[in-house]
UniProtKB/TrEMBL annotation:
Keywords: Cell inner membrane, Cell membrane, Manganese, Membrane, Metal-binding. Coiled coil: none annotated. Pfam families: Metallophos. Residues 17-217 form the Calcineurin-like phosphoesterase domain. SUPFAM superfamilies: Metallo-dependent phosphatases. Gene3D superfamilies: 3.60.21.10. One of its GO terms (molecular function) is UDP-2,3-diacylglucosamine hydrolase activity. One of its GO terms (biological process) is lipid A biosynthetic process. It comes from Rhizobium ruizarguesonis. This is UDP-2,3-diacylglucosamine diphosphatase. GO terms for cellular component: membrane. It comes from the Bacteria. The lineage of its organism: Bacteria, Pseudomonadati, Pseudomonadota, Alphaproteobacteria, Hyphomicrobiales.
Amino acid sequence: MGHERQLVKDMMEPRHFRTLFISDVHLGSKAAKADFLLDFLRHHEADTIVLVGDIVDGWRLKRSWYWPQVCNDVVQKLLRKARKGTRVVYIPGNHDEFLRAFPGMHFGGIEVVERMMHDGADGKKYLILHGDEFDVVVRNARLLAYLGDWAYDTAIRINIILAAVRRRLGMPYWSFSAWAKLQVKHAVNFIGEFERVVAEEARKNGADGVICGHIHHAIIQDMDGIRYINTGDWVESCTAVAEHEDGTFELITWRALASSVPALAAIEMHDEGELAPQAA
């Protein structure tokens, strides 16, 4: 049990990064994995945390109010980190666009900006923005964007039902909502075009790379000399991007990591009964 105990201790120790980038949490949506994000924030520290838009889902909250305690817990966790010295920057997206009326303002230590230039530890510059301004659907057809948002909600509900059925049949997990979303966007070459346009915006601004969210498609890749980084989302993929002290970037999928921690903690609790995860 000694090896397992040490492994649990190592897993429970927060990882520290130079910068963390998180987007598309959609607090206020029933599809948001706020509990996963809260767990992630407990296990990760950074000198700077950049919230790259759509943290709060104002669109859904306007339709019907949904704000469970875990949403408050996530907000309080971020505020607590800001009070303890972490720089927290909030770049609004289209779902939390109401915050775009407050550029330069600070709320509980959280700084609101429209976009920013990030100086990497390796000397490279990264343009950070949410990315919705380059989404033709959101920019030119607002009603269609709302309808697409509703359709995605419906797909999420279908996904829950299908997952239950497949589980009963002994079949592996398969995300209908992710499949449906990618089918639609592949039909119009949306993702590739979005990445190309956003990378070009970074080039126009004299940046070496760009960090964005919006399309819920996490990736780190080079595009014609521009480093394109998308942070993903906390609705399905539960991903964040971390910058190490040497300027390298890491894409973290918390779903995979979180699933292993409780099992290890259970081994430790059974053995000594003293290393339960601590609340925030």
